Amino acid sequence: MEERWRRYAVPRSPRQRQYPAILTGIMDGTELQPGGPLAHITDLVNKLLGPACAEIGAIFGDSLKVHRTKNFIRVTEKTNRMLEDADLEPNSVPSRVLLPIMDACSAEDDDDLQERWAGLLATASQEGDSFSPSFAETLKQLTPDEAKHLSRLYDRLTRYFKRPPTESDSIPYVELTTVTGGPRGGSETYLRLGLIWREYGADFEKPTLVYGFDSESGPVDGPGMLGDIEEAFKQLKVEVGYKSHLTEYSLRFLKACRGPQKEEETSAEPSESQTPLASKKPPSAS
């Protein structure tokens, strides 16, 4: 085992020489010690892990390989940058939140998704027990394209409404299709994960009224007899449709993936290219 580990730990560059000390600490199940080449990362990890640092190190030693550990280091570096940009100090994250994030982000090689895992970790370090553990499971089930599309959709709606979107704001139909770069089948995934909800409605096309006959009052303007009623139903046309909205859960999830941020003014007038495309008018759901 020692010889096998030594082959993985051979440094080939100044950057790579920073990894073995951290990897050894994790593989041996010991605390990550501050003061080394990656002191800012080891300090951050110790603060995030809190008392569970040694136990979590043992978990890494049992189940993760070197490339997974490197992925986790990249995520913590991004987390550290987010917290520094927001002028915030890292706090201990509850184990029920931290362990799923660590397990999932260490297996993620996509840089864009690593950025979102870092956002979740940074947000969790500030929200503590109020942070939803389900956010990690939701992000784990999104593809890179779906995660990018959701983030882009949130930005486009923000520019369109000139404020952060709410769950009552409808999403233009075309924004959830491949026409605007949406992933194929993405809307079904979002619906399954509770990230969007649909408001159903129906439009009725009024039938042409026919003349009927009432035995007491004579001819009437409208379906006054059974035959006329049947004819009216034949002419009745109903169009059922729906409007899509981001759910409250989705809005919280997307904000958490971006990490804590300083208060900034939303951009003013959206340009033509930034404005969501108009959709085919759906039936009203009032």
Largest sheet: 3 strands, antiparallel
Strand percentage: 5-15%
The helix fraction, in percent, is: 40-55%
Count of distinct structural domains: 2
**Intertermini distance:** 67 Å
Structural class: mainly alpha
Poorly predicted ranges: 1-34, 265-286
Report on this structure:
With 286 residues, this protein is mainly alpha-helical. It has two domains: 139 residues, no CATH class; 77 residues, Orthogonal Bundle (Arc Repressor Mutant, subunit A). The chain is built from twelve helices and five strands. It has a three-stranded antiparallel beta sheet. Strand 3 and strand 4 form a beta hairpin. The longest helix is centred in the first third of the chain and has 20 residues. The N terminus and C terminus are likely disordered.
Short description:
With 286 residues, the protein is mainly α. The chain has twelve helices and five strands.
Topology:
Layout: H1 2-8, H2 19-28, H3 39-49, H4 53-63, H5 66-85, H6 95-105, H7 111-127, H8 134-140, H9 144-161, E1 170-171, H10 186-192, E2 196-205, E3 211-214, E4 218-221, H11 226-235, E5 237-246, H12 248-257
Antiparallel strand pairs: 1-5, 2-5, 3-4
Keywords:
mainly alpha; Arc Repressor Mutant, subunit A; 2 domains; 3-stranded antiparallel β-sheet; 12 helices; 5 strands; 10% strand; disordered N terminus; disordered C terminus
